[in-house]
């Protein structure tokens, strides 16, 4: 499919689409993938550590991470107030989850304050991927992990180079995480180097 075909999918998701999106994509298609991400991404993160989900949408991934590890701080951000409303409703009984309205390009967090940054089906929506990846690299602590999951058909061209240019090291070590979904989804994994080069 030509790249321009996907242009309409860029940007904030709001309005009537939010509920059916949540029920079909989140509730059915991605359910197992969220569980697998929650399990593998959190391995090795110390108690009290912070995980950030960029473009959390209806919040099913932060919910899965929280259920897996109630000792982590799990934060979801999204620029869509309709998504935030839904994510907050979903996670209001989970004390270690926080959902905030923000964009990938402007993260309301200190430098080196996050242990892992994850995004699911969101990278192709970001308004400015270079700025967004710089922001994600900024908030990651040294040694912290970046995971990007997106549809193989929508994965932005050049995103691996952009991850590298943000100062992160591509590891691509966790592909088995996707299981049977690996045909439709791509997982990019990277790590922030321990010391600046
Ligand atoms: C297809 S949904 C994915 C939602 C969820 N992560 C999931 O797995 O279902 C894409 C999300 O990215 C959000 N988004 C759009 N532009 C964004 C940006 N600049 N920064 C962060 N998120 C953005 C949209 O509002 C939407 O909630």
UniProtKB/TrEMBL annotation:
Q: Which family is this protein grouped under?
A: Belongs to the methyltransferase superfamily.
Q: What class of enzyme is it?
A: transferase
Identification of the protein by name: Putative methyltransferase
Molecular function GO labels: S-adenosylmethionine-dependent methyltransferase activity
Species lineage: Bacteria, Bacillati, Actinomycetota, Actinomycetes, Propionibacteriales
Cite the CDD domains for this sequence.
AdoMet_MTases
Keyword Methyltransferase appears in the UniProt entry: yes
Which GO BP terms sit in this record? Answer: methylation
Keywords annotated in UniProt: Methyltransferase, Transferase
Q: Which residues form the Methyltransferase type domain?
A: 52-148
Which domain of life does this protein belong to? Answer: Bacteria
| InterPro entries per record | Diverse_substrate_MTase, Methyltransf_11, SAM-dependent_MTases_sf
Q: Kindly give the PANTHER family that the UniProt entry links to this protein.
A: METHYLTRANSF_11 DOMAIN-CONTAINING PROTEIN (PTHR44942), METHYLTRANSFERASE TYPE 11 DOMAIN-CONTAINING PROTEIN (PTHR44942:SF4)
Q: E.C. number, please?
A: 2.1.1.-
UniProt xrefs under SUPFAM superfamilies: S-adenosyl-L-methionine-dependent methyltransferases (SSF53335)
């Amino acid at each position: 499919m030509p790249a321009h075909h996907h242009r309409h999918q860029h940007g904030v998701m709001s309005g009537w689409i939010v509920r059916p999106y949540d029920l079909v994509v989140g509730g059915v298609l991605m359910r197992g993938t969220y569980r697998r991400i929650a399990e593998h991404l959190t391995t090795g993160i110390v108690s009290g550590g912070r995980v950030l989900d960029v473009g959390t949408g209806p919040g099913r991934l932060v919910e899965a991470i929280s259920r897996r590890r109630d000792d982590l701080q799990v934060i979801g951000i999204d620029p869509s107030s309709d998504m935030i409303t839904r994510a907050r409703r979903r996670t209001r009984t989970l004390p270690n989850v926080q959902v905030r309205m923000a964009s990938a390009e402007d993260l309301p967090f200190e430098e080196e304050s996050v242990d892992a940054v994850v995004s699911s089906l969101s990278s192709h929506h970001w308004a400015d991927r270079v700025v967004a990846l710089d922001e994600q690299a900024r908030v990651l602590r040294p040694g912290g992990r970046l995971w990007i999951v997106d549809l193989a058909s929508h994965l932005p061209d050049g995103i691996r180079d952009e991850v590298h240019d943000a100062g992160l090291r591509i590891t691509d070590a966790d592909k088995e995480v996707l299981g049977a979904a690996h045909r439709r989804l791509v997982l990019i994994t990277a790590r922030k180097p321990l010391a600046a080069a």
